[in-house]
Protein 1
Amino acid sequence: MKKIERIYLLDSILKQRRSPISVDALKERLECSQATVYRIIATMRDEFNAPIETNEQGVFYPRDAAFDLPGIRLSAEETQGLLMAAHLLEDLQSDSLQKPMQRIIENIDKVLSQKGIANRRLIQIIPALSRQPKAAVFQAIMSALQADKKLKISYKTRGKNEITERLVSPQRLTSYRNAWYLDAWCHLREDIRLFALEQIQAISPDIEQSKKLSPEQLRSHYADSYGIFSGQMKSTAVIKINTTQAPWTVFEHWHSKQQMSRIDDEHMLLKIPYNDPRELIADVMRLGTAAQITEPPQLQQLITQELKNVLAQYQN
């Protein structure tokens, strides 16, 4: 629990009580040590002018005290999250959602103004290569998720460019690399499938209750995959990266189970488990000569062939 969270929690505890609360009880409620409790009390007195009093029975607010903590305090990460949320909501607005979305955006702007950001337009969030879904598709999926209902969708596959009719039980929405995806149980394939929202051509609610999967089932399905792809790990990619050419890679997070080690002053070794190699190959290729796959041989062959295919286009 963060310090600011403990401050607001202590304020709430004291306002709800008519009698003092012991320091031992506060240690449990605030999940901290006795020393931290006293530091929180001191901070509230010194920085917020909170009228906290203590006696042999514990800590309390006087009954006639009229005190309120200042508005919501946000960390840098929380502020960034609100900025991104506001931009995201504006992108997803449709005629039917315009009023409720606008109210939410206005409330976000009020919170940001308390942080000193009076005009969030001065802070740009540019979603490069974003793929926006139709607002009606997004709204239908959100409604089905909340109501635990199945969905009928017409889905256009990317590879074969075919449209198939599917009955799915939606599980969760995922925003990944400026695109939206639906994790769902596909009743046609009898398995978990991932659907890119911009590829959904038509959508309608079904009257049946959806098949619900446990969080553990979803986690295990995607645990060893790289990026957006699912499935159990097939192999581990070993990538040699020149950190002089690409110094930002030292701070990049590729996978939850990645292993990173320094070879020398200029090179780093990155080990990543994967199933489907397509996204991994694309991420390695974006680094150009700064990255080299050293293992396994099958992955080396795939990226070598991909590079040959790219080169052939420019030679013809």
Protein 2
Amino acid sequence: MHRFYVPDIDATDRSISLDGQIARQLKTVLRVEAGEHVRLFDGSGAEWEVEVEHVGKTDIETTLISAVQPVPEPSTAVTMLLGLARPERIELAIQKCTELGAVRFIPVMSERVQGGNTGSPSPKRLERWQRIAVEAAEQSGRAIVPVVEEPMAIMDAVGSVIADQPLFCMWEEIADESEPLSTSLKAINDNNSAIAALIGPPGGFSEQEATAIREAGAKLVTLGARVLRSETAAIAVMSAILYESGDLGG
């Protein structure tokens, strides 16, 4: 059954009108007719099944049938801090990590941001990234839509999450200060319901940045000797967290 993200649904009003892009997709792409059912979710965890009552020129009228039990969210809420890279790399990381269950994305500006100062995303770019998160939630069956936040300087981003949850920084240098991600995940308290993961830009973090991140309370971890692209590292980290917490088919 087709699913669509519709914020601010009032479940007390059984008549729900759909317009804009959703109405155009239902009418011109899916060619829905009166009597067909679709599902709507508001991004906060609630989902409903509705029946199409009328297909108009620019809008579609539906009637709420019932609430739907949404797909369960992972037991661990994962925040992904993504070092800024080329847009297509960030977009892939957001798409796939949303499908896997990430709840929050923070683009991070560091010394080796691709493109220098021009690497900071524009408002339109941030809107696109948020839209990618919405589409990935629709496709994967999630009733939660992760938030893509405004870009932050590296240490500001670290400080915004470190007080509330463990933060693992992916550090490409294998040194005494770093340990395998699997070891770090096994060592955290089972009661941790939230984890943050920091993925560097394609050039990685400088040694000074890594030191500052560690001194702020983060754990430097390694994904092994193979060099992974930043988007691959993000997907691998998200998958490892889910596996360790028993949320990857376990």
